[in-house]
């Protein structure tokens, strides 16, 4: 960290003075070059650097775009197999450690078992009215399936099986997260077709159209990290298979750690949750504006002409119209 004298000298050499609060704030940084460069671009007339100005300058650096394009692969057997096997390899470790997974067998060994029972970890290949076909490295098997839960081809799940019938689905699920909070008074506004641009400087403003210099524009898909701490995923509802109840069906997808069950239509693992977001924002026209929390993840649905404000210091969410 820089000393008080070094910080004062760095700014004084460029004709700036610091308020006491700004000086204290800058003691947390190892380098001031980029901060000073951003201040110089603003052409501050009174040359007095306040903590509010510093927060504004630093905030410009604090949005890291991880992905901003929902890249879809070719719809070929090779492409689909590669994507699904990626999921299988990642999730089988979580599923093996689930307490409900009793007597874990491969499909080949399940077929050989006298009682035709045990737990398997498998990829769903086909979903029929009263049965499913699942697969692992050792083969495929058709199982009777009369559980009122929605599953899709490509799902990687655990199954408790008895006499060729699925008795229970075991989900990989997301872990319980500690809700991260900021030490500063910082807010995020997520809008969809939103003209309510925040006037304050302590906002990150995400919108699907550019209507301000402070807008961070998203298309059908955007993954960013804010302040090196908060992971945010924004996605168009058309990429997620939700038909009737947003919260219920979204919870099912989260428990599968996969928000893209439509792998046959959109061959991609972009919505496969290896890293768990702090905020998942879905936007569209089919549901009412809504939010809920699941295991520390804030899940938000935004309809047209609405927005949500999130206080990163408290994690409180405010719905606005």
Describe this structure in words.
By secondary structure, the protein is an alpha/beta fold. It folds into three domains: 4-61, D-family DNA polymerase, DP1 subunit N-terminal domain (Helicase, Ruva Protein, domain 3), CATH 1.10.8.800; 64-71 and 177-320, Purple Acid Phosphatase, chain A, domain 2 (4-Layer Sandwich), CATH 3.60.21; 99-170, Beta Barrel (OB fold (Dihydrolipoamide Acetyltransferase, E2P)), CATH 2.40.50. 22% of the residues lie in helices and 31% in strands. It contains seven helices and 18 strands. The protein has helices at 4-12, 20-26, 33-42, 51-59, 77-96, 107-112, 246-255, and strands spanning 17-18, 48-49, 63-67, 117-127, 131-136, 139-144, 156-162, 165-170, 187-192, 203-207, 215-217, 221-226, 230-236, 279-284, 290-294, 297-303, 306-311, 316-320. A six-stranded mixed sheet has the order 3-12-13-14-16-15, with helices on one face. Strand 5 (131-136) and strand 6 form a beta hairpin. The longest helix is centred in the first third of the chain and has 20 residues, at 77-96. The two termini are 44 Å apart.
What is this entry, summarized?
The chain is α/β, with parallel strands linked by helices and 321 residues long. The chain is 22% helix and 31% strand.
Strand and helix layout:
Layout: H1 4-12, E1 17-18, H2 20-26, H3 33-42, E2 48-49, H4 51-59, E3 63-67, H5 77-96, H6 107-112, E4 117-127, E5 131-136, E6 139-144, E7 156-162, E8 165-170, E9 187-192, E10 203-207, E11 215-217, E12 221-226, E13 230-236, H7 246-255, E14 279-284, E15 290-294, E16 297-303, E17 306-311, E18 316-320
């Amino acid at each position: 960290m820089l000393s008080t004298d070094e910080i004062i000298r760095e700014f004084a050499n460029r004709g700036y003075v610091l308020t006491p609060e700004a000086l204290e704030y800058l003691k947390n940084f190892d380098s001031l070059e980029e901060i000073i460069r951003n201040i110089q671009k603003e052409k501050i007339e009174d040359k007095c650097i306040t903590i509010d100005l510093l927060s504004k300058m630093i905030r410009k650096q604090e949005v890291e775009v991880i992905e901003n394009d929902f890249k879809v692969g070719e719809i070929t057997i090779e492409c689909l197999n590669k994507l699904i096997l990626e999921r299988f390899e990642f999730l089988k470790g979580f599923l093996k450690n689930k307490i409900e997974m009793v007597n874990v067998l491969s499909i080949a060994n399940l077929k050989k078992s006298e009682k035709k029972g045990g737990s398997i970890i498998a990829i769903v290949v086909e979903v029929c009215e009263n049965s499913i076909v699942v697969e692992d490295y050792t083969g495929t098997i058709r199982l009777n399936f009369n559980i009122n839960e929605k599953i899709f081809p490509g799902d990687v799940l655990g199954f408790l099986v008895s006499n060729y019938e699925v008795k229970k689905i075991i989900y990989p699920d997301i872990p319980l997260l500690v809700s991260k909070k900021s030490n500063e008074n910082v807010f995020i506004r997520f809008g969809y077709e939103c003209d309510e641009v925040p006037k304050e400087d302590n906002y990150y403003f995400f919108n699907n159209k550019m209507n301000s210099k402070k807008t961070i524009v998203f298309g059908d898909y955007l993954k960013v990290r804010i302040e090196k701490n908060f992971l945010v995923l924004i996605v168009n509802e058309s990429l997620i298979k939700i038909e009737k109840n947003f919260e219920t069906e979204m919870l099912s997808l989260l428990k599968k750690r996969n928000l893209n069950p439509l792998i046959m239509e959109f061959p991609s693992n972009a919505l496969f949750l290896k890293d768990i977001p702090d905020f998942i924002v879905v936007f569209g026209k089919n549901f009412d504006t809504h939010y809920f929390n699941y295991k520390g993840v804030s899940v938000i649905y935004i309809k047209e002409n609405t927005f949500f404000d999130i206080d990163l210091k408290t994690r409180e969410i405010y719905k606005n119209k």
